[in-house]
Amino acid sequence: MSEKIISEWFHQYSDEMYNFLIYRLGESDVEDCVQEVFIRAYKSLPLYKGESSPRTWLYTIARNIAIDELRKRKRKKWKVLVSFEAKHEPNMTKTPEEILSLNEENKQLYQAIQSLKQNYRDVIILRGLEGFSITETAEILDWSEPKTSSTYHRAKLELKDLLGGAFYEERSIGTKASSNANS
Questions:
Q1: CATH number assigned to the domain covering 102-183
Q2: Fewer CB within 10 A of the end CB, N or C, for the chain?
Q3: Domain limits of the chain?
Q4: Cβ-count burial of 130 within 10 angstroms (0-12 exposed, 13-18 middle, 19+ buried)?
Q5: Is there a contact between 140 and 59 (Cβ–Cβ < 8 Å)?
Q6: pTM for this model (two decimals)
């Protein structure tokens, strides 16, 4: 029974998890992380109480996996730095921009989001790009609703400054989420 549920959720939400993890991790090589989301969901399904939607629960898992992955990368960078000091050649990887090969407008948005501090990046991705309500975003981030709302507002202002007002208004980050604001 649980395999059927996870399979349904995978078909329903895997694309969203993929997009979230691309924005969160900064590269397109996230298939393993997406798979890990559903593996962890499968293993934790008996603990799922249904107090939140499956989508919200899966985003919480995806966020935790992203945090774990970023920690791993940080340790890996440190090892590369140490090996470089030891006269070893570090492995050079492609930049996220090269991997994603986005059009110029999306590159600007992507780069601006990546330059935000972590809390701002999380709330912009969840509210502005994924369209979660304040309540759902707060639940995923384990924040209060007022903190979520004020952080989202500050993140939008910083993003607007990074992108320039005209570009920001044209892209209208938050339009998708504003229709869910009172959910």
A1: 1.10.10.10
A2: N
A3: 1-94, 102-183
A4: buried
A5: yes
A6: 0.60
Domain at 1-94: CATH code: 1.10.1740.10
Closest C-alpha among 128, 99, 102, 131 to residue 116? 128
Helix, strand or coil, per DSSP, at residue 104: helix
Give the separation between CA 37 and CA 24, rounded to whole angstroms.
Answer: 14
Residue type, 165: G
Check the CA dihedral 12-18-24-85 and report its sign.
positive
Lookup: tokens for 112: 């601006």
In angstroms, the CA 176 to CA 129 distance is 7
One-letter amino acid for residue 158 of the chain: E
